[in-house]
Amino acid sequence: xxxxxxxxRRLDAQAQGLTREHVSSNAVxxxxxxxxxxxxxxxxxxxxxxxxxxxxxxxFDVATDATPEQVKDLxxxxxxxxxxxxxxxVRYGRELIEVSTFRRAVADxxxxxxxxxxxxxxxxxxxxTLEEDAFRRDFTINALYYDPQSEEVIDFVGGLxxxxxRCIRFIGDTSTRIREDPVRVLRAIRFQAKLEFDPEPxxxxxxxxxxxxxxxxxxxRLFDEIQxxxxxxxxxxxxxxxxxxxxxxALFPGCNPEEPLIDRAMRNTxxxxxxxxxxxxxxxxxxxxxxxxxxxxxxxxGQLKPSEARVHAAxxxxxxQQQIIAVPRRFSQxxxxxxxxxxxxxxxxxxxxxxxxxxxxxxxxxxxxxxxAETEQGATAVELxxxxxxxxxxxxxxxEKQSAMIEERRTSxxxxxxxxxxxRRRPTDVDSSSAEINLADSxxx
Length: 445
Ligand code: ATP
Ligand code: MG
What we know:
Order of helices and strands: EHEHEHEEEHEEHEHHEHHHHHHHHHHHHH
Structural class: alpha+beta
Strand content: 5-15%
Oligomer: single chain
Helix content: 40-55%
Bound molecules: adenosine-5'-triphosphate, magnesium ion
Radius of gyration: 26 Å
Number of domains: 2
């Protein structure tokens, strides 16, 4: 595939509906500086695809024949990054332009160090030509280049036609491309949800095999890919596409994909993205793992105090999930806090209310409580709804009314005899410092 010479189609970009005004001026600046220095400098990938579809690109990626070091020398505000391969990040204020050097797919059997026995790519940081760079990309619609200077689109792989046909098609042989990198199946699902394109039918035939190969993917990479799916603005649809597949089972074994909480939270997140509100993958991961966490609390019943059972359950649940998807610590901490706050928000003990309302995770935990109240069935539903409404009201009223609400809780909730806690022993295998941060006052029943 990489050996054969293919004639690229060079097309007038304006005739394809892509004009330079739609491109970030910083990205144009990067390509200009590269070309002025005698290198190639082209926009590539998702940004070209999105521009041709009339969508606003999330970010702009540049491809070049300059090495990462040469790029670094050319741009003062740049640094080299990369887990799997080195790329240059060029910073313009808040905008980051990724500049990557043309790479080629490594020929299958010739160079065994690059592939595992199953044909999976282990290394792919071998530099190549523009043409080779096109062919190593995943889908035809992701392998289009745009030259802002000549205002041309360059297409080696029939990507323009597939954009018109609204089709997600692998470059080359589908099974080979999936075995090389099974994460591409997750990417197909993400683009299907985001673009409302049809994936080539053969992709679904490999879900099972790709799911089995997930165990071999570094958990940090899976986090990156799942995060992109959850924060794509099409999380609800992405999850619906993933839910019924063995991939969901491989990635989130403890999750019941039909849980109503999940769809509600995903739709909330999509809406927040649409209106420009901040979102965090921590919230959706807390949602995806919530039922598993709850079930694990049940397992400790009778053995531990409820508050300790919750801490243990959270640790166990996250530890199992971390083996598959590496959730960075700031997010796992967020998840623990949102979970641990649920119980406290439900009980609304008078003496804790002000502290809860001032907690850094209050807002996220409140949002979580609200969607639980909206989706929970059965006996707890009424109590959840009451608690959620109470907190909604508490945030709407002024300080005076808040004090009255607290007072009302105090009188309606006769103070229980407090358990003596001095000398209480904590289980030693729990990272209690992180798990109970800011929540040290154990007030739950
Ligand atoms: P988005 O708009 O969501 O960022 P994207 O297409 O830009 O979509 P990225 O993950 O940013 O997706 O990847 C940038 C480009 O790198 C892709 O368009 C594709 O050409 C190439 N690429 C990314 N991941 C792979 C992969 N696993 N295999 C082959 N090519 C890939
Ligand atoms: Mg991108």
